[in-house]
């Protein structure tokens, strides 16, 4: 849990939960925070387990360096070239959020990862920001298409829910059903005092087949600190 003060009448908190198939996996989160901003980069390297973890270890320092000062198209293109050159035919799906902690303006960039869910007015209304570009390293530099930023403004009670596809792809116990988007949205509409990360993590752990070969999974929530509950 990371607590972030901002000048819009609320305190923002960030909470994450991860499930790896080994000691480490191909999912990782980089956080860069200043007095006026929060930048979060949630990455999902192709595959899972030790091979994906090794690839993540190679690309993560570059992402950490480029995240300082903000992400733009030129930086993403450099990262995509590095991923294409270094990761042995793996690529990096990602979600990047940059929030101005004074104005509440948020820039969201998504490529390869599931949509970011924006919950408005304490969860009464939701919208989904869809991916619109290519993951890092998917193709060579000449063919790569950068995702476009999507801008939204946060108000008190608004929150972001982000996750990698390991959530919706989680295999259930008996019958081989996937967790799916419908269960994600159902969990987010539940009347609970728990943060979305805590409630979703409980839901997916109860659902999952513990004998199945599951993907790495990351859940990320940014919202009002008053939502936090034990």
Provide a brief overview of the structure.
Helices cover 23% and strands 31% of the residues. It has helices at residues 49-67, 73-86, 180-188, 196-207; strands at residues 2-5, 11-19, 27-33, 37-45, 92-100, 105-111, 116-120, 125-129, 150-153, 159-163, 217-224.
Blueprint (SSEs and pairs):
Layout: E1 2-5, E2 11-19, E3 27-33, E4 37-45, H1 49-67, H2 73-86, E5 92-100, E6 105-111, E7 116-120, E8 125-129, E9 150-153, E10 159-163, H3 180-188, H4 196-207, E11 217-224
Antiparallel strand pairs: 1-2, 2-11, 3-4, 4-5, 5-6, 6-9, 7-8, 7-10, 10-11
How does this structure look, described?
The structure is a single chain. This protein has 230 residues and is of the alpha+beta class. The chain has one domain (2-165, 213-224): PPM-type phosphatase domain (Phosphatase 2c, domain 1). Helix content is 23%, strand content 31%. The protein has four helices and eleven strands, in the order E-E-E-E-H-H-E-E-E-E-E-E-H-H-E. A six-stranded antiparallel β-sheet has the order 1-2-11-10-7-8, with helices on one face. Strand 5 (92-100) and strand 6 (105-111) form a beta hairpin. Helix 1 runs antiparallel to helix 2. The radius of gyration is 17 Å and the shape is globular. The chain starts with a strand and ends in a 6-residue tail after the last strand. The mean pLDDT is 90.
CATH superfamily descriptor: PPM-type phosphatase domain
The CATH class, by name, is Alpha Beta
Q: Pick out the low-confidence regions.
A: none
Instruction: Estimate the mean pLDDT confidence.
Output: 90
Main sheet characteristics: 6 strands, antiparallel
> What structural class do the secondary elements suggest?
alpha+beta
CATH topology: Phosphatase 2c, domain 1
- The amount of beta strand, in percent, is 25-35%
Radius of gyration: 17 Å
The second-level CATH architecture is: 4-Layer Sandwich
Number of helices: 4
Report how far apart the termini are: 12 Å
* Topology order in helix (H) and strand (E) letters: EEEEHHEEEEEEHHE
């Amino acid at each position: 849990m990371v607590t972030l003060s901002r000048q819009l009448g609320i305190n923002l908190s960030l909470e994450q939960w991860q499930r790896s198939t080994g000691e480490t996996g191909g999912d990782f989160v980089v956080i860069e925070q200043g007095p006026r901003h929060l930048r979060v980069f949630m990455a999902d390297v192709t595959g899972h387990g030790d091979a994906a973890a090794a690839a993540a270890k190679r690309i993560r320092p570059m992402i950490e360096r480029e995240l300082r000062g903000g992400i733009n198209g030129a930086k993403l293109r450099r990262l995509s070239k590095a991923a294409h050159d270094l990761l042995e035919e793996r690529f990096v799906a990602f979600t990047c959020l940059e929030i101005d902690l004074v104005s509440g303006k948020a820039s969201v960039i998504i490529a390869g990862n599931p949509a970011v869910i924006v919950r408005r007015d304490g969860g009464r209304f939701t919208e989904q920001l869809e991916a619109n570009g290519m993951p890092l390293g998917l193709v060579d530099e000449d063919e790569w298409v950068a995702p476009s930023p999507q801008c939204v403004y946060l108000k008190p009670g608004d929150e972001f829910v982000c996750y990698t596809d390991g959530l919706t792809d989680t295999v259930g116990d008996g019958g081989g059903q996937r967790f799916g988007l419908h269960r994600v949205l159902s969990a987010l509409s539940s009347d609970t005092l728990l943060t979305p990360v805590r409630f979703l993590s409980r839901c997916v752990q109860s659902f999952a087949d513990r004998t199945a070969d599951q993907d790495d999974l990351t859940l990320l929530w940014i919202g009002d600190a008053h939502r936090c509950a034990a």
